[in-house]
Design a protein that fits this description.
By secondary structure, the protein is an alpha/beta fold. Helix content is about 35%, strand content about 25%. It has a six-stranded mixed β-sheet with strand order 3-2-1-4-11-12, with helices on both faces. Strands 13, 14, 15, 18, 21 and 22 form a six-stranded mixed β-sheet that branches.
């Protein structure tokens, strides 16, 4: 048995599935002041009267990190940066207390300037004096040699909470590594508290099943591993909807996924059964990061968006003032129009009739025409967003390769609708786009199903310098020595990377899910001195494929 829970902006959904059918499902209103209560209420509903020892795995998708960043409820984070030569230090603008210190590591991981210990101590004293308790330490090439970051941390006061960049991201692009480390430092304490509360709640219910957290790239990791970089959960909601659409749809299809929730509509693209990843990483609070995520976009229109009529024209505002009127709210929303026209069965029909009739009378419109105009306007906003999104999607290398394989310039011809308002809105969206509308059964809890079906993912990035006889395992922040006296080939480099991935998977407790690997990046450079090749540099990245464990109701 698998349980998936998605804590969304409006609703928290949960499903219990055996991989071939949904056994129980539940929706509850998300309480933003206490996300744990919402999660546990949904969990209790789908496990009612069942033997919880049958549960094999629980996967949680949560908006916690998204919320605390958006609401600026994170502790302030000071920066200690060691950029070395290159970009002007004035360009590092992260809107927080920043100390630029001397010392430098080059691109091969060699020290070219030592750390000034007294300078580091003074920076730490200033950070504490200005009221900061958390800091991020990031050197430009610390992913090639972490010794400077470790030294800096050791020189700082032990009362400071320190995050080091080499443990957060191994990918190059120094500004993105700074932003990713800073956001990790800012969110770790609140995420740790949430995970502890989840573990305690499960223990009280005698649920011993392993818990996984869904990441922005559609993969999952155990809580302790996700705690290393909680900001990776920032876009887990859109990832869950894309995975849920995959699980509910025929294998290998190419479709736009529109997850229409109460507050927003999340868009994603599935190419021949594989979600499209954003090549440049996620953007968080205007910061470019090294967080791998699906190529998604959130549109500020949903079932509970505020609707106003001005001078006879329907307008849908990019905000939510509470639940729909038919759900006990105070204002007109698209959900009321859908309920009025019997396109959904959610909400009090009499209240939907009342608010539509009242607004129509004030606007001197026919009630049926008003409701239809509301739905058309919501659909128009979503279609415009999809068209704009295609401009971005078409720039992604993976999309271009997919299009080349089709041997013609085409666009997906399906729009898969998931989420509570999908049944009422997606047919209109598909008609405007001249596409097929697919609204699978259980579409209203697709996010939770996507979480339940998500497959654990593991990545290993390895950099090998045969001239220096060293290698670095980026994810572990570990550097080692190569065996001496024998040539080191590309096959040896690939084996080292694969062995590192299998070792990480075993430590993370997900080795059973590693059935195949894919090489996502492989480069080799010859080192030439005096017209002679003196060594090679290998950069290799391997990972488990991002996929789902089951397709509901289909043979595996």
């Amino acid at each position: 048995m698998f349980i998936g829970i998605d804590v969304g902006g409006t609703y928290t959904d949960a499903v219990l599935t055996d991989g071939s059918q949904i056994i129980a499902k539940h929706k509850t209103v998300t309480r933003h002041e206490n996300l744990l209560d919402s999660l546990i209420a949904a969990l209790d509903a789908v496990t009612l009267d069942m033997d919880v020892s049958l549960v094999n795995r629980i996967v949680i998708s949560t908006t916690l990190v998204t919320n605390v960043i958006a609401e600026k409820k994170t502790p302030p984070v000071a920066l200690i940066l060691s950029p070395g030569p290159g970009l002007s230090h004035s360009e590092y603008r992260f809107h927080t207390l920043t100390h630029i210190i001397s010392g430098a590591i080059d691109f091969r991981g060699r020290e070219i300037a030592p750390i000034d210990r007294e300078e580091v101590v003074r920076a730490g004293q200033d950070i504490k004096a200005q009221g900061y308790s958390t800091a991020a330490v990031v050197g430009k090439f610390s992913n090639r040699n972490q010794s400077h970051e470790i030294l800096i941390k050791g020189l700082l006061d032990s009362d400071l909470n320190i995050e080091m960049g080499h443990l957060i991201s191994g990918r190059l692009n120094y500004p993105r590594r700074i932003a990713t480390t800073m956001l990790t430092a800012a969110t770790k304490s609140v995420f740790a508290g949430f995970l502890d509360a989840v573990k305690n709640s499960l223990k009280q219910r005698n649920i011993a099943a392993p818990v996984f957290i869904l990441k922005a790239d559609g993969g999952t990791l155990p809580p302790d591993s996700s705690l290393r970089m909680p900001v990776e959960t920032i876009f887990s909601g859109p990832a869950a909807s894309a995975l849920g659409a995959m699980s509910l749809s025929p294998k290998g299809q190419t479709s736009v996924v529109a997850d229409i929730g109460g507050t927003t509509t999340d868009l994603a693209l599935i190419l021949s059964g594989k979600p499209l990843l954003a090549s440049k990483g996620a953007v968080v609070e205007d910061y470019l990061t090294n967080i791998t995520s699906f190529a998604v976009r959130s549109v500020p229109v949903g079932g509970d968006s505020t609707v106003v009529v001005k001078k006879g024209k329907v307008q849908i505002l990019p905000q939510r003032q509470g639940p729909a009127y038919c759900m006990g709210g105070e204002g007109l929303t698209p959900s009321d129009a859908l309920r009025f026209l019997n396109k959904t069965g959610v909400g009090d029909f009499s209240r939907a009739v009342h608010i539509i009739n009242k607004t129509a009378a004030e606007a001197e419109k026919n009630p049926e025409e008003l409701a239809a105009e509301i739905i058309s306007e919501a659909a128009r906003i979503i279609v415009n967003a999809i068209e704009q999104m295609f401009i971005n999607w078409e720039q992604e290398p993976a999309y271009r390769i997919w299009e080349f394989k089709q041997r013609t310039k085409i666009r997906p011809n399906n729009v898969v609708g998931v989420g509570g308002a999908a049944k009422g809105l997606i047919p209109t969206v598909a008609a405007l786009m001249n596409c097929n509308a697919i609204i699978p059964e259980h579409a209203e809890v697709a996010n939770a199903l996507g979480a339940a079906a998500a497959q654990p993912t593991v990545t290993a990035n390895v950099r090998i310098d045969t001239e220096q006889g060293t290698y670095t395992l980026v994810e572990d922040g570990y550097s080692g020595k190569l065996a001496q006296g024998q040539p080191f080939t590309e096959a040896d480099a690939l084996k080292l990377a694969k062995d590192a991935l299998f070792a990480r998977a075993e430590r993370l407790g997900v080795k059973e899910y590693v059935k195949e690997l894919e090489v996502v990046h492989s480069e080799v450079f010859n080192m030439v001195r005096n017209w002679t090749t003196t060594g090679k540099i290998f950069d290799i990245s391997v990972q488990t494929p991002r996929d789902i464990l089951f397709y509901l109701g289909q043979e595996q």
